[in-house]
Every structure is written in structure tokens, then in C-alpha cells.
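Mods, move this if it's the wrong board.
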Amino acid sequence: MQRNYHKYDPSLIKGNYDVAIIGSGLAGLTAGVLLAKAGKRVLILERHFKPGGFTHTFKRQNYEWDVGVHYVGQVNNPKSMMSRLFDIVSEGDLLWEDMGDVYDQAIIDGKTFNFRKGKENLKSDLKERFPDEHSAIDKYFALLKQAELSAGLFFGERTMPPFMSKTIGYFLRRKFQPFCQKNTLATLKEITLNTELIAVLATQCGNYGLAPNKSSFAMHTTIAGHYMDGAAYPQGGAFKIYESLSDKIVSRGGEIYVNAEVDSIVTKGKRIDYLLMKDGSKVKAKNYISNAGLHNTYNKLIKKDKHIKKYKRALNQISSSTSHLCFYGGFTNSDKALGFPKHNIWVYNSTDFSSDHAKFMSEPEGEIPLFYFSFPSAKDKIWQDQNPDRATIQIVVPANYDWFEKWNDSKWKKRPEDYQDFKLMFKEKILKELFKHFPACEAYLDHAELSTPLTTEHFSNYSRGEIYGLEHTPKRFMQRWIRVYTPYNNLYLTGQDILTVGVGGALFSGAFAAFGILRLKLLNVIRKAVKH
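Not the wrong board. C-alpha cells:
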């Protein structure tokens, strides 16, 4: 495993950098690679003791799990923009393991539906399952096609400086904007009143952590389209994403430091003067990119400043996305023997996702409305070859940060007994659900632990333990000020808050941030990379 990073030490920071990037997640890495390819001296600062953001993995005994990358769409299509951009920033070193014909399985109120790769497969399977809803299904796919044709211009507009957006931005946004303004449940109800069909179509709402009655339909179309042609998993695990991209930065003279927490972004007029580190040292660069999230950047890192007052007011009207609990299990037998599949499994109590979720948020002792099963070892052939008699699983369920807030002053691994008891209640419920679907695995369970929103808060620095940044509501998508540019001439933004949640949102927002600095010079970088 390549390290490509060092523990932060002020004495190692020598001279000025062209670009300093706060955060080593995928967006920061993508921007860093493209800037380094353009000849820029890049510095990446990561507050965690391990780089990679939500692409990093962690180990316990003989097991390893990813923390945020469960499957990625479009990378198995070499003609997609996503695949091409990954090839450019990884120089073809990042390989993907196709998840097969089925990438998601929905179990809703005890009934199963498989999501097979390919639009025509999905459409025909839906029509077979719902023979009286052919017209509604055709209307749904027509909406997805309309959204696909207009989404690129809408999100591409985020690369424009505000003055350009005021003049021509409307024409780029106008066709996709109606999708942004509607909520998912209301839009699906305009197509059909069949609650089971609506539930199947909304199965993947967990990928952006918002119930259908609250999410923007734009987010629904983005996720549905992203996985339509199937999905893949990085060979060797999610950390291979960091290894591949970081190598391209370091080999070009860039530097990556961990335990490098930025205390504040110090401004001077409409420019960033320097970064003040937690240890009191200073880091200077010509340009800066924040991959720390909008709330962290504007509410924590930039102290009181008149230039961002209106942005902060608008930002603070948008809530953070959902929190979650994640169970990590390790087993002393192979995936095949245990019956663990490559595809993910979504288990819902009923077809009424929105009501079930709302009820659970107020009653944590009640029935868990959603279980998301992911099988990282089954998806990764390298793991299977190297660990023939071991398997891993992750099970994600929704959570409310308010349940854990009374313990937020306690320390990781040193939290009180009542916190541990509260965790145990969820752990037992999750294990019960696991053994119901995969009874053979109970005898081989070797390792079991549960993370909470406080764990996420500790490692990601998101104040409410959210994993998806700003919640993907209509209000969020109508914020025209959310873009790469800031009121400061040399500060740029990247990450899932700029575009959308997920690997794709992070990847393209990183490219957008690089474009903010390089402008048309980025096209030369891409041209050379494609030629190479």
C-alpha cells in the first residue's frame, strides 16, 4: 500500500504553494491531480490521521471495510464522462470490478424486486411486475430522459463566475430547473397512484439520505440515471481511489499531510491571506480550495466577515442531510458459503417510506424502517483471492443526531456506559435482521461493531454526523450562489455540496474547482491526458 502522505509538521512546509486544498476526499484529490498536471505546486491538508475522506478504509483484526464507497455507476461504460474523467485523473491505474447483472435488490414489505443493468431490462422488469402500469412506467422513463438531457447544462453552469451566471445562466438552468423544484413523492404520484410501484421506483432514496416526500426530484433522476447501466466497485477496495490519485499528485511534486487541521481561513479584503493551522502555524498559497463542506467553510473556518454574510444567511436555511448508524461485520467463512451476493440489498418495512422514516426519527426504540446491506468482500475479487475464508458486510440504517447529542462532549472510544447500551439496542436489531436474511452467517460472525453519528462527526468533522452534506431538497437546488466561486478572489469550493452527493458529485466538483483556477488551460491538461 502506497502512503503518499506525511504527518503534518510546520518545518516541512517550505515556500509558497500554487494551491492549498483543505480536505483529502475525492473532490480535493481530483482537483489536486488536474492542477498538478497543469504544473501547479499542490498542497493537501487533511485533519484526520488517514487521508481519502469517504474513500478511505479501516481494518479490524483480519477484516477491512470501506466507509463511504459502496458502489459506483457509469464507470463500467468506457464512453461515459465519469469513466473518462476517472481514467484521466488515475491515468488508467484505477480498475473496477463489475457487480454483475443485478446491482440493487429491493425487499419492500416482504416482496423482492431486482434492479438489472440496462434501461430496457429495468423497464421490462417493471412492466412484468406491474402489468397495469405500462403507461405510468413509460412516462417515468420519459421524465428520466428529459432530466438527463438538461442536467449537464444545469450543473455545468456551476463553473461560471456569478457575473456570467447573471447574463446567460438562466438559459442553461431553465430546462432542468422544474425537476429541481418538485419533490420526488409528489412527482411520482402525478405518474401513478400505485404505492408499491412508487416504492420500487424510490428504492434508492437512501443513496442521498432523504425520504421521497422531502427530496428534490432532480436528485432522484440523478441517482436513477447514474446506476441505470449497472455499477462497479474499485478492485482492491475503496482506498485504491486515494492511492491512485494521490500518486499522480506526489509524483509531480505535490504534498499531502494528515493530522493537519486548519483552524481558520484568514481573509484580507476580498482575498485569502493564509490558513491558520490548529497548532498556530501558517500556510500560504496563491489559491485555496475548500473541500471541507459549505457549513464548515462559511460557518467555522471563515470567521466573521462581511463578504459572506448573505451566503451564511442562505446557507443556514438549508438543513444538513441525514445521519446514520453503520454495522461492520466480519465472518470466518467465504461470501459464497454464506450466501453473500455482490449486489446491495434495500429492506423496507412498508411502501410508505416517508411516514415510516418520520416515525422512527421520533421513536428510536421503534421499528427500523430501512436496512441497507452492502457486501464489500463479495464485490472485490482481490479480497476474495487474498482472504478465501473471510467475508465482510456493512449494514446502514438511518439515525437522528438528536438521539446522540447528549454524548457529543465524550471522546471517541471513551464514551459512557449508557451510550454503549443505546448502541447495543440498535446492534441487536440489526443482527436480528441480518440473520433473518442470511441465517448461515450467524455461526461464523467473528467481528461486530457499530458506528454512530458521533463517530462520523469525529472523523468527518460534519457537525451533525451527516454523510451527505446539505440535504437534497428543492430549496438546496434552487440556491444559485452555490458554485465553485466564492466572494474571495482566490478561494474556490469543491465537494458534494457544490453539485450532488456521491462519488460522481465529488469527482466532477473537483474538476470544476480545477477549472475555476485554470480556466481554459484545463482543456490542454485534458487533451494531453487523453492523448497519453
